[in-house]
Here is the input.
Amino acid sequence: MAYQPESIEKKWQNYWAKNAVYKTGTDPKKPKYYVLDMFPYPSGAGLHVGHPLGYIASDIICRFRRAQGFNVLHPMGWDAFGLPAEQYAIQTGQHPATTTKKNIATYREQLDKIGLSFDWSREVSTCDPEYYKWTQWAFAQMFDHYYDVKLDKAMPISHLEKQHPEWTKLSPAAREAELQNHRIAYLADLPVNWCAALGTVLANDEVKDGLSVRGGHPVEQRIMKQWSLRISPYAERLLQGLEKLEWSEAVKEMQRNWIGKSVGGEVDFAIQNSTDSLRIFTTRPDTIFGVSFMVLAPESDWSLKLASSAQRPAVDAYLEECKKRTERDRLADVKRVSGVFTGSYAIHPFTKKPIPIWIGDYVLGGYGTGAIMAVPAHDSRDYAFAKHFSLPILPVVEGGNIEKEAFEATDGKMINSDFMNGLQASSAITRAIQELEKLGVGTRKVNYRLRDAIFSRQRYWGEPFPVYYKDGLPKVLPTEELPVALPEVDKYLPTETGEPPLGRAKNWQTKDGYPLELSTMPGFAGSSAYYFRYMDPKNSKELASKESLNYWQNVDLYIGGAEHATGHLIYSRFWCKFLFDIGFAPVEEPFKKLVNQGLIQGRSSYVYRLKSDVNTFVSYGLRDKYDTQALHVDVSFVENDFLNLEAFRNWRPEYKNAKFILEDDRYRCGSAAEKMSKSFYNVINPDQVVARYGADTLRLFEMFLGPLEQFKPWNMSGIEGVYRFLQKAWRWTHGNDESETLSLSTTPVSEEAMRVLHQTIDKVTKDIQNLSFNTAVSQFMICVNELSGKAQTKEVFETFAVLLAPFAPHFAEELWAKLGHTTSVTLAPWPAANPQFLVANAMKIVVQVNGKLRDQFEAPVGSSEAEVFAIAMAREAVQAQLAGKTIRKQIYVNGKLVNFVV
RNA sequence: GCUGGGAUGGUGGAAUUGGUAGACACACAGGACUUAAAAUCCUGCGGACCUUAAUCGGUCCGUGCGAGUUCGAUUCUCGCUCUCAGCACCA
Here is the structure.
């Protein structure tokens, strides 16, 4: 029987399922290893070949670690709440739960075909009330905690109340208002990103360039009452925590930017003819003598307060104009300078000179204090503003070309700066703050860009809040009364009065009749602690038991896309730190090592149609000789870039009589790497590939495609290579294509063959550890090429089966069973390479003189360095052609430099 | 503009701390087997050149561009070009 993946793969998948081979429990005798894939959102389109890339990689690691004696946790589940299901529900009336369930079934079926070693007994789904009960629990905990700045951790609200006995005298509403300023989950009027088309608010990471990431709808700023998570006090811990993580520098850097720490000072500028003072934040207090004007954000409270009566009409007009400009317009013309003078002046803290106060939309209300001191000589934005309005530009740091542009460096000497003259700008920063502190008008200050996370969504398909309102004040439900299950509604749209869809639910209230919160949680809620739930997924008392938490700790290896860098990955870290603070989580960081698999792009194919004759298509190589238009063609009609003419003619009626201008009697298509999309006709499903080549070939091929973290186009032309490899391996082990049994021999294995086998053990082991799966696959190919037709002993086949199992588990399992084993190859221990076979029996000695090859020869293994030299010198003497020259001689043993003499 | 990656044959990609560049695979070409095709197996495959009847053998150039360090650079340093990704009025 030839290698027939379809028969063996189904068999072993059933075997694994029936015998629960991959079921994991806590086992104190073994070291633990937790490998997690980012769980997918089950969309209606199903999986394409890009999805399994990360899953296959993590599966290889899992199988490898198991063989090394680790107790491996490798679960999978579903990020099941989400916008697409809701929008589909709005269009069709079908309940999102129904669609989601169907999609999950499809995903599950597709994943099962790939032979992944998930422990499905731990499957979770974020839309399951038994799951989101614990999301609600965590939220309730956040409501009941505040961030204690002194202790630098979250503490119970009761602890805060003890420090404020005066609050007990307040009315319930006033007291709650105080508490809302501290609760980690709090309700506040906030400027939010409102998306009218989606009917909901969005988090900052869900908005890009003023458009929603999902759907690309315009987003505007609005003030709304929203639930938020106070993530900003965690900024410093989130930043510091990055240092210890084994994450790519790229993702760490993205998080650093997102947190946006900047160190500087806050300075109070007195306002002329007023007792008020204007507080600004600056990172360059050293340039304070270069201040020539101040700028307020248009949305700042000061803007109207400081408008003089003479300037009032101009200020009003400008503020009106700013309001009209949406976020998008503002981003669209960054270069445009606009602003207006308020008519008021501030007083310089050192020179006591008056400084005009302006309003400008390049200053943001939401950052710092919403006001700046402008130093045009040393800030490019202030420079542009000053040039536009002809304001003075006063250089205080030596260097640059102030006539042309702002000089922003801090490596110059201070000038025109009184007590700071002559200092380096970088050291003047500290000096300036000291002086300001003496005057009592300034202090050192650290600012973060990280904003609190807005946590309300005006949607149906999400976790309901565990919140009700008593006398108009928010309360959270106790854990015993959770979950608050998502109610049924007649339509998935906002109500006529503009309330979220939950406003349509009947009896949406607590058992005591208090109304429940109408908004739902955002997408990241369910994914922020799912890694803990997998540890103990059936627990109805807790998110996870102490015992399981202490055993599994956190995720050792997390694999998923880099697109979650500033969303899920930062929220999860925050969530975990909070759970750590309240004594639930055993560790502060959820994911020790993170690997971002590269996107697999689709490979689109094109045909070239004559503009003059829409029925004629020109082959790729000849297209320049004609005037043509490129059209996408379904990639299923194309093999190795050659078009199947028959299939193309049958594709659409208008191509029935298509004519072709061929090259070498064939039609060659053009190609390009693009996102996999239905509209480009380039989507490849893993099912198609499995049906034709089998799961093991798909697995090997996805790994062979290139480095895991690299973006790469899907290109089927190479798949034959790995398929041939498995066929060769089959023939090697079975003797020929027809044999049903193994072709075993007792002939001792040659030393050379042992060398190949042990090099394979060595290389594959190292490659898996380095996540260098593509070179591991190459090593397997070398191994089979070398050993094919020889080395057919039981021991060799056994070693090969164990090595191959992580990559091609079905093939390995079949081979293992035929070797007489009755248990899964998964349970076999990982082989160790014998160092004896890793060195060559004859050392290859290469002698170079002045970098040029002069001599090469072999010496017996074990020769000492001195012997090698002696042989080399003797041979050189015979050659006798080096006399009279200064030489540098290098001697290589097996390609390695051992020494050199001059 | 800022930050972080990347650039190696026709193609995807290999190359421990600097040490014989191009492993492995695809594509292509030639050959064997076959009535034929498929499959399989074998050979060649960066460029220029020398040598030869042809092999064998040998030389020079070659890892985006230009310098530098070094006996020796795909690898390290500096300066560019192009490209991918992220951030972007964050004071």
